[in-house]
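Job type: complex structure
Entries:
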Amino acid sequence: MTSVARLTKAHLWIAFAAFLVACVFGIWQMWARSPLATPYVIAEHYFLSVTAHGVAMAFVLTTFFIMGFGYFTAETALDRPLPGKPWAWAGFFLAVAGTLMAVAAILSGQASVLYTFYPPLTGSPFFYLGLVLVVVGSWIWCILMIVAMREWKGAHPGAPVPLAMFATVANAIMWLWTTVGVAAELLFIVIPASLGWVDTVDVGLTRTLFSWTLHAIVYFWLFPAYIAFYTMAPQAAGGRLYSDMMGRLTFVLFLVYSLPVGLHHLFMDPEHSTGFKFVQMSLTVLVAVPTLLTVFTISASLEIAGRLRGGRGLLGWIPALPWDRPMVLATGLSFVMLFFGGGGGLVNMSYGLNALIHNTSWVTAHFHLIFGGTVVIMYFAICYAIWPRLTGHEAGTQDAQRLQLWLWFVGMMIMSLPWHWLGLHGQWRRVAQFDYTNPIIAAWGPWVTTSLVGGILLFASAVVFVWNLAALRADRKAPVAPFAFATAVHQPARVPASLNGFGLWNVLVLVLMIAAYGWPIAQFFVLQPPHAVVHRVDRGG
Amino acid sequence: MSVESEAEDRPWQVRASVIVVAIVVVAALLGFVVLPVVQGRSAGVDAFSAICRALGLQAGSPAVRQPVSATRAEPVSLVAWTEEVIARLHNPNEENGSDLAANICASCHGADGVSPDPAFPHMAGQSAFAIYKQLHDFKNGARGNEIMASVVEQLDDEQMADIAAHFAYFTKGALDPTTPVTNDPAIVRLVERGITARGLPACASCHGAHAGGPIETPTLAGQRHEYLAAQLRAFAKGERRNDIYHRMRDIATKLTDSEIEELAAYYAGIGLYQRIK
Amino acid sequence: MAVSESDILRSEVRWAMIVGVAVAVIFAAVIYTGIELHVNPPSNIETIDPKALHLSNEFTESNLGTRVEPEGRITTRIVATQFAFDPPCVVVPANEPVTLRLTTPDVIHGILVTGTNVNTMIVPGYVAQVHTVFTKTGDLLMPCHEYCGLGHSQMWATVRVVPRESFRPDAEGRVACD
Amino acid sequence: MLFLLLGRSALAGKTRSEDTGLSQADLDTVMEEVPKGALALSASAVLLLLCGWFFVYFFIFVPRGTVG
C-alpha cells in the first residue's frame, strides 16, 4: 500500500459516488425524451436533472478522479513521498465542501442553468461559489504536482522526469491556464449577478470567457486516459512503450493546442467574426495531431506485445494480445470509441460544416463517446489497475471487471450511434420532451428508444463497476506487487530540456492565447455591446 | 543519464516557436485576407470591407452584402429595462412610495395590496418590475384602461417606480405558489408541463417559483379569478397588447374558453400566506 | 540486429507526415468550399440593445416575418423570446437566396431548421444573421436549440418553404403564413 | 476492428509473471516487424475517417444549401 492510499481512495470514492448518481439522472433524461411515458417529467425536474448530471459528470467525477490519480502517480512514478500532504487534504475538503454547496443549490431547484451556465440566466450564488471551491481545491492539486516534480528534479539533476509524471504536470499546468476563463466569468460577471450586485451582464463576453475553458477542460479530463495509454497499457499487454519521446511530445501538444481553440464552440455565435473562427479552426485541426500520433504509438506498443506473444503477419498481433486483462481490453474498446467520437469531432470542428450539427444530438453523441466512452472506460481500467495497490487486496477473478467494461462499451455504442443519426435529422439538444405527434419527430421514436436501451446497459455497467471496487475490499488479501509503469523500448537516457519541463511551452501558450483570444475578448471592451438583463432562476412566483 | 544543456536545447526552442508562429500566420492570412477578399469579390463587397468584416470591425459576412430596413418602430410598450430604471426600482424613495400608495392605490387595491373588490387585482406578491411595467403602460396608452389611465396620469416615472417598489417590498414573498385548490389533471398539466404540440409552454416556466422568465412577469398565485380570466380573454382577442412580442397574446389565443376559466380558478386558488410585516 | 532509437523516431516522423496530409486534405476542402460556395459559419458582429429591442425600428412587431425588400432581396426577421418565436410561422421561397435575421430581447436562444444548414445562436445584444438557400419545399420545424429557461422544450416555430411561383408578396413586399 | 477484439486469443491465459521475463533478444526480433502492423492499422483508420468526413461534407452538408 502506498502512503497516499487513503488520499487517493477518498478522492476516487467521491468521484464515483457522483458518477453513479449522475448515471441515474442520465437514464431518466433519456427516458423522458423517448416516446415512452415517463414519471416525474416537468420542466423544473428535467432541467434540475440535466444540471445535476452535467455537474456530477463534468466537474465532480473528473476533478476528483484526476486529483486522486495524480497523487497516486506523483508518489508511484517519482518513487518518493508526496510533498505537502496536509495541503492535499485541505484541497480535498475544500472541493467536497464546494460540491455539497453546489448540490444543495441544484437539488433545491435554484440552479437549473445547466453546467454550462448560460447567463443572463442566473442561479443561486451557492451554486457558483460551490463550483469555485471545487476549482480552488484543484488548484492546490496543480501546485502540489508542480512542486513534486520540481523536488524530484532537484534530487535527480539532469534525469528525465518519468513520463507518467511529466504528463500529470502537463495536465496541471494546462488546467491552471484553462480555469482562467471560467474563473474570470464567474468572479467578475456571474457571481456578482447572482448576488444581485449587478442587474445586467455582457452575454457575448461571458460566452467567450466560458469558451476559453470549454475545450481545454475536455483535455483535462482526457489526460488520465492518455497517461494510461502510454504508461499502463503497454505494460499490461506485456510489451514496451514504442516511443517515450512521442509521449512527451503528445502531452506538450495537448498543453499548447487545447487552449487557443475554444472559439470553435462558438462557430454559430453572432458575436465573433469569420476570421477569428477560421484561425481557431486551424488551431483546432492541430489538436487532432497528438491524438493521431498516440493512435500510432500505442498501436505499435501493443504490436510489440502481440508479436512477443506469437502474433504473426500484418495484423495477427491483434488477436494475440491478452484481451482478458482489463487494461488491455479497455484500451482496445477505448480506441474503437475514439474512432467514432473523433470522427464526429472532425465534423464539429470543420468551420461552416458545424452548421449541420450544432446543438443537435450529434454533439451530445460526440462528447459522450469521447468523454463517457474513450476517457471514462480508461478511468475504470486505471481503478482496476491501482485499486489492489491502494487496498492491499487482489481480485480473485477478473470476470466481473471484463463484463463491466464490455457492458460499458456496448451500452455507449448503442446509446450514441443513434444520436448521430438523430442529430443529422435535426434532433435538437436540451429538451425535456418531444412532440411525437409531429410527423418529423415521430420518425425519430425508434432510434430514441434504442438509445435508451444503451443507457440502461450503461447504468448496469456503472453499478457493476462500483460493486467491483467495493468487492475488492472483501476479496483475498494478497501480497501485491509494487506498481510499475511501462518502460519504453529505449528508455530515454537523454531528452531535450524542452521535453523535460514546461518553460518554453508556457511561453508558446501565452503567444497563442494572445493571437487567438486577444481581440475576441478585447472587442467587448472596445465595442461596449449592450448588456442583457439578468434573469434569475432562484427567485420567482 | 542526462537532460541536454540549455545551449543544446536552443535549436529545439527555435524550431518549435517558428512552427507554432508560422501556423498562426498562415491561418491568419487565409482567414483574414484570402477567404474574405475572394468571397467579397464575387458578392460585391470591396476588399477593405471584406477584411474588416473578417476581423470583426464591421458587421456582416464578407460573402454577402448587408440587408437594409427602412421600417419605423411601432412599439407595444414604451418600458425598457435600462440600468437606470432597474436601479430606481431597487433604490426607491420609500416614503414617497408609501404616501402615494396610501393616497392613490389603497382604495381599490387595499392598503396592504390585497384588493377588497373581485374586479381589481391584488398587488400583493407582485415584483416592482411587474407593477412598474403596467403603470407605465397605462400612462402611455400601451394598455387601455380608463380608470387606471386617469389615476396614473399625474404620476411621473419616478413616482411610478416608488409605488411599484412599495408594494413589492411590502409583500415580498407573501404568496405560496405550491398550494393549488383545483386538481384537474389537464390544468395541472398545462401549468406544470405545457403542451408541446400546441406550442404552449408550461405556465410555470414563467410564473413558477424558479422560473427565470422575463423580469416583468407578474405573480399569478392568489390573484383574483375574475381579473385573471378577463386578462387572458383580452389577450386572446387582441384587446390587450402590451406584452412585447406576443408573449401572452400567442398563448391566450391557443387556449380554449374553458381552459382560461380553469386556469384562472387554479391560480386564484393558490393561497396568500405568511404576509411579511 | 537491434532497432535504434532513431529508427523509431523515423517511423514516427513518417506517420506524422501521413497525419499531416490527412489534416491538409480536410483543410483544403474547407478552403475550397469557402471560396467556391461561400461557406462560412454565420457571423455578424452587429449589436442591438435587447432591453430596448421592441423600441427599435427593424425589430418592431409589425416588421417581423418575411419581406421582399425594395432592392429585391428576401429577408426574414424573427424575434426569439421566452418561450416562443415571433412570428411563429414564416414563409420563404425555395432555391432563392434568403437572409434570416434573428435577435432576442431576453436570454440566449438558438435555432436550427430541420433538414437544412440553417443554424445559429441568438445572443442578447446581437443580431444573428444566416444567409442561405433552401433546397427543399415543405413545412420545416424550427426549434429553439439552446437552453433558455423552463419553457425551452415548447419553443418552436415553422418555416414554410414554398416553390418560387407560390411565393407572392403583398403590396408592401410581405409574405406571411395563412 | 470489433470482431478482432471479440476474438479471444488462445494465448490469453498467460499470466503477468511470464511477461516480465521479456528478453532483449525476443524484443529485438519482434522490433524487426514493428511498426508495420501499427502503421497498417492506424493508416486504415485515418483513411476511413477521411472517407467518412468527405461523405458527410459533400453528400449531406453541401446538398442542404449554402450557409454564411
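Summary: Residues 43-78 of chain A form the longest helix (36 residues). Chain A has a mean pLDDT of 95.
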